[in-house]
Amino acid sequence: MQSVHIQGVRMAEVLQKTLADYEDVWLFVTHMGDPKAAFLLCFPVTYYLSRRTGVAVLWVAAISEWLNLMFKWVLFGERPFWWIGESRLFGKNPPLVRQFSTTCETGPGSPSGHAMVTSAVCWVMASSLASFLYLHTRSVLLRAVPYLLYVVVLLAVGISRVFTLAHFPHQVIAGSLTGIMIGVFLNRAVPEERPLRFFFHVSMGLLLAALLLHAGLEYFGINLSWSIALAMKWCSHLAWIRLDTAPFSSLTRDCGSMLGLGLAQYWKPGGWKLPWAPRALCIALSSMTLYHINRVALPTSPPLLFYGLIFIRFTLVPQVVMIFVPGLVHHLTAKKKKD
Q: Is-contact 270 330, C-beta < 8 A?
């Protein structure tokens, strides 16, 4: 793996040199490729366009991110920003690379979570759009357009992760390929009308399975905090290390969103039936609401409180998108019609 890592660092060096003028673009791309974007942006937009696709996006996002965490715990992948210093291979000729605010993630590096969740979620959206276009136009050419855009998105997110020193190229490729397989498989079994107990079992099952794996690895002497120590050691700005990039943050996000999805479908089976214009309003209101919910600063000490609040925050996400906002819009539009 040493030669693979060296070539990966050299590629990051070339990318930072040749794409330096477009730094803000690549930072924006890596921000949009964050798994949180699937929950806070892709889910509300797709849900109001197609209920089934929206539920599929949230389902695939949670399961793919959870699987990514499991893979990272057992594969022990390095990250470029700490491997450069830890390897001590470059001596007096260190690579001409720099870190960014999105570089210093604290979890292991393989496979890339950005690439894996993006490829899984975007597969759901691309295949849904392709089917819609073909159904209404019978054009094979138009049907191919979403898949071409899908490839472009994967390439852009992958380049952004290497550019920012967050991942090696092989980790991005592994994440993308794994995400595609997960997206294809899970998109065939979307729990659109499952009872609340199903989602409760899924939520608790994800949590317990992760805790059991964590405890088992720790029992056999494997320190799963090794990546956090390396991130703190080699990150050029300690302020860039955030608790919301820690493995248990993604775990509680996934578990909370699954429970929230079950609650939303329990409160309002079938969802609110809205015309297209009110749906556009719902997209705007939901996006703004989730943006402000996500901006609320959470106490990071003690960590257990922080993770509990993350769980509650993402339990609320499906409630906002599927219950509160469309219910409000339905009430307002219905009242306007009566007047």
A: no
Of 103, 31, 36, 64, which Cα lies nearest the Cα of 249? 36
Tell me if 73 sits within 8 A of 108, measured CB to CB: yes
Spatial separation of the C-alpha atoms in residues 170 and 158, rounded to whole Å = 10
pLDDT in tens, 18-66: 999 999 999 999 999 999 999 999 999 999 999 999 999 999 999 999 9
d(CA 307, CA 298): 9
Reduced to 3 states, what is the DSSP secondary structure of residue 290?
A: helix
| DSSP 8-state secondary structure symbol assigned to residue 40 | I
CB count in 10 Å sphere of residue 252: 23
Contact (CB, 8 A) for 27 and 171: no
Q: Check if the beta carbon of residue 54 is closer than 8 Å to that of residue 274.
A: no
Contact 93, 154 (CB under 8 A): no
Question: Rounded to the nearest 5 degrees, what angle is found at the Cα of 122, between the Cα atoms of 195 and 146?
Answer: 125
Name the pLDDT band for 335 (thresholds 50, 70, 90). low
Asked if 253 contacts 314 with a C-beta cutoff of 8 angstroms, the reply is yes
CA atoms lying within 13 Å on the CB side of residue 87: 19
> In this predicted model, what pLDDT tens digit does every residue of 260-272 receive, in sequence order?
999 999 999 888 8
Which one-letter DSSP state was computed for residue 34? S
Q: Kindly list the catalytic residues.
A: 114, 167
Length of the chain: 339
The vertex-275 CA angle with 272 and 276, nearest 5°, equals: 120
| 210 Cβ contact list (under 8 Å, min separation 6) | 66, 69, 70, 251
Closest CA to 65 of 123, 124, 125, 112: 112
- What lies within 8 Å, CB to CB, of 284 at 6+ separation is none
Q: List all residues 6 or more positions away from 226 whose beta carbon is below 8 Å from its beta carbon.
A: 76
The amino acid present at 91, given as its one-letter code, is: G
